[in-house]
Amino acid sequence: MKKKRIERKLSTMLLSKTNNVLNDDWKQKIKKVLPMRFQVILKELLVQSSVEPRLSAIKLKLRELGLEMSAQAELEKIIEETKSAKEKYLARRELALWYANQRNPDSAIKSLYYLSNMKQYKYHKEDILHIEDILIETENYLLLKETMKGKQLLDSILPKLKLLDLFFMRANFEDEIEQKIFWINKGLAVKNLLPISIDAFSGKPPYDCIKSDIVNEKVDLERSKKFKVSIIVPVYNAEDTIETALISLINQTWSNIEIIVVDDCSIDNTSTKLKKIKLIDKRIKTITTNKNSGAYVARNEGIKVATGDFITCNDSDDWSHPQKIETQITNFLLNPGIIANTSQQIRATSDLCFYRRGNFRLLIPNVSSLMFRRKIVMEKLGYLDSVRFAADSEFIRRIKVVFGKDSVLNLESGPLSFQRQSSSSLTGNEAFGYHGFFMGARKEYFESQIYFHKTAPVKKLYYEYPMRKRPFKVPRPLLEKGNSVVKLEKILIFDFRVFDRDIFDLIAMLSSGDSCRIGLIQYYKYDFNPTTFINEQIRNCLNNSECEFLVYGQKVFCESLYILGSDLLQHRQRYVPKVYSDEVYILERGSAVIENQVYENSRYFLNYNKITTLSLEKFKKNKEVENGD
C-alpha cells in the first residue's frame, strides 16, 4: 500500500510539473518511457486534469451566461457518454445543484435523482465534496417535508464530520426553538464563538429575540482604547429590523466603537425608532441624507463623518454576533501589514431557518463586513462607488489593485452575521440580486470595473464624494431607482466578446445623423470561451460613445432592433432584457439558420410587429445612401 501511495504521489508531481509546460505529444512520449504501473496512474491523472476545466466552462454557461437549456443538455451528454468516473460525478453534481436552486418540489425530486446516482463515485468520506452533497440532499428533503430522512442522514454523519454548515442545516429540521438553538450553538462552537439564546418573553420572531451573555467576555478597556471602530449602518424603511441590528452592535465585546446610522430618507417610522434607540447608548449617532440615493451613498455619508481608526459597515436588517468586531480587529493586530479584512455570514429567516445562496455552502463571505484602515484607504482610494448595489466588491478590488492582492484577508471566522433573508431583500431580487454568481447587471458592472481598474492610472482609482463624474459606465439599474423601463430608438444584439469589424461599422452607421443613443444587448455564443470578457475595443468604444448595455430585468421599447446573424440565436439565453420593437432586422453574412429555431429562441424575450431578413452588405449600402455617403 505504501509503495502504491508513493507511485501515485510521484505521478501526481510529474503531472503538475509538466501539465502546463508540455504539449500533448511530449506528454505521450514521457508516458511511453515510464514503467507500466506509472503509465496507468499517469493516464488516469491526465484524464482527470482535463475534466475540471471542461466542467467549469459548462458551469459558467449554465449559471452566469444563462445558456441553461444547452448547458444542461451538454451535462446530460457527458453523463451518458464519458468513461471518466470523476467527470460523470461532477456533471451529475452540477445538475443536482441547479435543480436544488429552483427551490420547488419537482426540482427537488430531480436533484435527489442526480445525487442518488452519484453515490457510486468513490470519494473520501471527509472530502468537502461529500459534505456539500449532503447539504444539498438534506435541503431537498426539507423542501419535500421528508424531515425524518434529513434528520437520519445528518445524525449519522455529525459525530464524524464537524463542519459548521452541517450543524446549521440540522437546526432547520427542528420545530422547537430550544432545539434549533441547541444545534446553532453546536455550530458556533466549531469556531469557538459565544453561544446564543432566545428572549422568549419579547413576543417577536426568533431572529429578533437573539441574545448572548457578554458580561464576562468584554475585551479589556485598556486594550480596546487603542483602536476605535466606526460602524456605519445605512437605513431605509427599516422600522421592523433596525432595533435588532443596533442592539447587536451595542452588545459587541469590543466596546470602543461609534455607530453611525445614516437614514436614507425613510418614509416609514424608522426615524422615530432611531430616536428611542439613541437614548440607550451614547455611541449611536444619526444623520439623514438629502434625498434617497441608495445604501452606498448613505455609507459614503457615514464615512465622511467617521472618526475611528477602522471603518466597517452593518446592514440595517442583519444581526451581528457579539464577537464580530473583536474578531476582525484582533486579526489586524496579528497582521499589521494588512489593509482590510472581511468575516463570514449565514442567511437566516425570521424563524431561524438557514439557506444557501446559489452555491453548495451555507457559510459564505460577507463583503458588507469589510473593515479597513480609515486614514490610508481614504487617502489613496477615497469613497465607495456611488451605485445602488455591488459597490463593496468593487471597493475591495480597488484596495487590492492599489495595496496588493494580499492586502485584504477573508477570515474563516464562522457566521459573525446572520443575513436576514426575506422576499424584499436585495440579494434575493431575481434580476439584480446576487445568487452566488455574476449575471445580468452585476456581471456587466464587474467586467466594466475590471477593465477600468486595469487601464486607468492609479490616481484615477481615487473616487470623490459626491461623485461629479462617473469613472466608467454602468447599466442604468445600478444608478436609477424604481422600474427599469427604457426607451431607445435603436438596439443592436451581438456577442460583443468577439472582435468584429462589422460591429464597429454598424454602431457608427446607426448612431450617425441623429446622434441617438444605441442600446447593446449581449447575447452569448455557446461555443465561445465562457471566461472571455466583452472585447476591450468594444468596452473602450462604449465608454466614449452614447451606447449603453441593456441588461436582464429591464423592459426596453425601441423603434428598430438589429441582430447580426441569425446563428446568434441558436441557443436560448435567460439573462436578457424584455424588448418591444416595432421592427426587427436580421442582418445575414452567410446562409441563415432555420427560421423556426430563431423565432422560437427570440420570442421569449423579444416582441415585435415586423421582422425582415437582409444581407449585411445590402443593409450597409442602404445606410450609406440614407446617410448621404
Automatic annotation (TrEMBL):
SUPFAM superfamilies for the chain: Nucleotide-diphospho-sugar transferases (SSF53448)
InterPro entries reported for this sequence: Glyco_trans_2-like (IPR001173), Nucleotide-diphossugar_trans (IPR029044)
Residue ranges occupied by any Glycosyltransferase 2-like domain in the UniProt entry: 230-336
GO molecular function: hexosyltransferase activity
Family annotation (Gene3D superfamilies): Spore Coat Polysaccharide Biosynthesis Protein SpsA, Chain A
Family annotation (Pfam families): Glycos_transf_2
Signal peptide: none
Superkingdom of the organism of origin: Bacteria
Family of this protein: Belongs to the glycosyltransferase 2 family.
Protein name: Glycosyltransferase family 2 protein
